[in-house]
Amino acid sequence: MHMADALLSPQVAGVMYAASAVTAGISIYKLKKEEKLSEEPNYKKLPTMAVMAALVFAGQMINYAIPGTGSSGHLCGGMMLTALLGPYAGFLSMIVILTIQCLFFADGGLLALGANIWNMAFYGCFVGYFLIYRPIMRSKMMSSSVKSANRVKIILASMLGCVITLQLGAFSVVLETSLSGITELPFGSFLMLMQPIHLAVGAVEGLITSAILIFVCEARPSLLKDINITDEQRSKGSVKAVLITIAAVALIVGGGVSLLASGNPDGLEWALFGNSESGYSENMGLDEENFGVESKAAERAEKIQNKTSFFPDYAFSSDSENPAGTSVSGIVGSVMVAIAAAAVCFAGGFFRKRAAKKKKSN
Amino acid sequence: MNKAEKASRELAGAENLAHGDSFIHRMSPLSKLAVTVTYIAVTVSFGKYDFSALAVMALFPVIAYQLALIPVFTCFRKLRMILPLVCAVGLFNPVFDREILFTVGSLRISGGVVSMITLMMKGVFSLMASFLLAATTKIEDICASLRKLHIPKMLVSLLLLTFRYISVMLDEVSVMSCAYSLRSPGSRGVAVGAWGSFLGQLILRSSDRANELYESMVLRGFNGEFEYTRPQSGGAVSWLISAAVIALIFTARFFNLTEALGSLIGR
Q1: Are B258 and A333 spatial neighbours (Cβ–Cβ below 8 Å)?
Q2: Do A185 and B187 touch (CB under 8 A)?
Q3: Tens digit of each residue's pLDDT (9 = 90 or more) over B43-54
Q4: Percentages helix, strand, coil for chain A, rounded to the nearest 5?
Q5: Which one of A22, A113, A331, B203 counts the least CB within 10 Å of its CB?
Q6: Do A345 and B173 touch (CB under 8 A)?
Q7: A contacts of B65 (beta carbons < 8 Å)
Q8: Interface contact flag, B101 A57, Cβ < 8 Å
Q9: What are the beta bridge partners of residue B107?
Q10: A309 pLDDT band (50/70/90 cuts)?
Q11: Given CB atoms, is B250 within the 8 Å cutoff of chain A?
């Protein structure tokens, strides 16, 4: 689900960076608050967080054989990290994993890092933990037999957590890409493409996560959050929260699909502004050119915007009649650039080899 | 070679590159970060049909790779990670956008094809730029410059420590995977019965390791922040060069240099 830079416009990438940065700030603040309460320095957690983050990263390289299918799946680990470290520390560890993946493995782009953090870490760590994992683990379900109760709860919490958070993540990828105006693929069709794939991915992830968490819970329960809690912390009606979350997610994702699955070419824009041929915009009273602006100041602002904007409706401001900005000279120029780039590479290689030879002879 | 071993080698390869010695390596990390971020933001901001104007952007990373004494092909191997999603998004453009933009001889090129090519070029260019940053800057320098940007010390220390521990964990997983596959020939992966215990065992051992690590760090005087050595001199020069490059990047954004170049020959 890692997004590349090319899939985002700078504006959307900026907004996602801001959202992720604010969440990271809150996480650090909360951890500092916990530090004051526990009298244990925060940096004591640092090695545990680092080792667990490294472990989850390495754990992604393990292939798990999926019985009956002949294929194999692997772990992403957001939910597992949250179960081991808690939501705030888990979120920070996920940020670090995603940053290293982006910088050293080119998995996801540098500009898209904010969006990737949001899509993969935020949902897993916060939505997954506060609305699914914690309510289920703290519920009074099957309190007669602790061992089997824990097993059932862990399976339920990790399955639901992984499936729902991955659905939300996939939904965000589609939303961000569509808002960036990158794809011609209608919003609805793109959604129909992404959600089912991530349903399967989420189910596999949930199964692997629950297997690992059950093992850890039985071997060393102290490592898991929300296993050893007092009766006071247990809440009776918290399963309701889980049900509400599931309903809300189903509504968002399902609603998105059904609203826009009509195969209309301009997904979001169509939904917002309609197309004038069908009379939609007249019905809704919306007009794309003058959406809500009717004053001199607004007109002036629009002129300035048209002059300075990077994308006045995705074409060059000076060149709106020729949207490609293409001509024979454009193509000839591109070929020349390609030749120049190849020549630069060739020259670089030549000088590198000569330098290596010199080094050897010395 | 299993996946973990491959990843471990890839990481070691990137780190080795970062320890090289070249003009780009010696530049101040923060100035490199500024240029890289500007380059990527400008590259992705090109219109979806602007492939000819975008083409000239290729020259920036290509020249920088040569100055850094790194072959451009090193980063192309990394493309396998990002290309699938970019392709999935881009490949549908020719289907939905069939308006003919221009013709080359008798070949009619539709808007969808142009926007697909532009999208892929953007993906490749921004990958080249961000990998160059990682390949010419040591992780310690990246962390030091992040601290200069006032990124919280907890996050930065975590980044450095995790990076150091990833190779340890990758080796551990690699040995375990190798041992497992030798005992279960022909299997495609860890069988369902061992799903929990395989990584679970490692979690138990790692949590002990984390405690030992903490104790040894405290014994060496760790108080929550790593100390970074001062960056080398020459910061002013590298900022000057970076400013010039950023100016060039914006020139390439607002004037179609490729077309200008083509018209020199075309006329």
Answers
A1: yes
A2: no
A3: 988 888 888 888
A4: 70, 0, 25
A5: A22
A6: no
A7: 345, 348
A8: no
A9: B104
A10: very low
A11: no
The ipTM of this complex is: 0.89
Residues of B (151-180) whose Cβ lies below 8 Å from A: 152, 154-155, 157-159, 161-166, 168-170, 172-174, 177
Closest to B26 measured CA to CA, from B235, B227, B230: B235
Q: Do B86 and A4 touch (CB under 8 A)?
A: yes
Sorted by where each starts, the structural domains of chain A and their CATH numbers stand as 5-263 (1.10.1760.20), 274-315 (no CATH)
Q: Is A107 on the interface with B (CB under 8 A)?
A: yes
d(CA A145, CA B52): 68
What is the reported pTM? 0.81
In this structure, are residues A216 and A224 in contact, taking their beta carbons and an 8 Å threshold?
yes
Residues of chain B with pLDDT under 50: none
Please check whether residue B114 touches A, CB under 8 A: yes
pLDDT digits (tens, 9 = 90+) for B229-257: 665 656 788 889 999 999 999 988 888 88
Instruction: Name the residue in chain A with its Cα closest to that of B207.
Output: A48
Is the Cβ of A120 closer than 8 Å to some Cβ of chain B?
A: no
CB contact under 8 Å between A110 and B130, yes or no, is yes
> Min CA distance, A92 vs chain B (Å)?
7
Q: How far is CA A58 from CA A54, B140, B174, B209, in A?
A: 6, 21, 9, 16
